[in-house]
Amino acid sequence: MSKQAKKSPPIPAQTNFIKILHSLIIISLFIMIGSGLQIYNATPVFGGKSGWSFPKWATLGGWLAGGRNWHFTTMWIFAFTLLIYGIYIFLTQRWKRKFLSGQDLKALKVGQNSKRRTYAWHRLIYTGIIPILLLAIASGLAMYKPAQLHWLSWLFINWQVLRTVHFLTVPISLLFIIVHIIMGIKAGGLKLTRSMFQP
Q1: What angle (nearest 5°) sits at the alpha carbon of residue 85, between those of residues 12 and 98?
Q2: Contact 183, 118 (CB under 8 A)
């Protein structure tokens, strides 16, 4: 008689509403990255017209106007989805479990069990990406409507600084996604990650 297999932890319950929002955020983010690289290639941020550009397979839109259409259309989907998600987290008080707290900082300092520290790091990263996403949206809006939002463009000093800041939010967001997935797997295995997408 074979030994009884160990019971695996149950898959965390996620509402379909959250799964849809989560998927929309990820899909729109990658569409914006691809179309943003198409815009970048028209006038590279670093090096001007002769600067290094991204390969065609990494871009979306086919040309400058096409990239801009994809980018600015998807920007509204991304921004409004984040807004809805933020309102949902606030109303349901999920922010108490999602974002960094004093207890998490204490866990990182004094060093508790590894799982508790993993959760603390996850909340730290989850909290830290919020200003980056807001910066990406603000800098994007400043480039989208520089005349109407001149006060927002002014905060970034000049056009080159504005474009550089906006560009740098891309690798930071990608790094967040990678670390977010790794932390999720470390905390709850692949089941936790799959639970965000499975029906």
Answers
A1: 50
A2: yes
- Cα separations (Å) of 177 from 2, 14, 134, 170? 41, 19, 16, 11
pLDDT 10s digits, 35-70: 999 999 988 888 767 778 899 999 999 888 999 999
Give Cβ neighbours of residue 79 (< 8 Å, ≥ 6 apart).
Answer: 137
For residue 186, pLDDT over 80 is answered with no
Give the CA distances from residue 114 to residues 17, 62, 93, 119, 124, in Å, rounded to whole numbers and listed in that order: 31, 47, 26, 9, 15
**pTM of this prediction?**
0.78
Inter-residue contact 40 to 82 (CB < 8 Å) = no
Query: For residue 58, what are the contacts with CB-CB under 8 A and spacing of at least 6?
Result: 34, 37
| Structure-token pair, residue 12 | 């965390």
Distance CA 187, CA 199 (A): 21
In Å, the largest CA–CA distance within the chain is 76
- Residues 133, 138: Cα–Cα separation, whole Å: 9
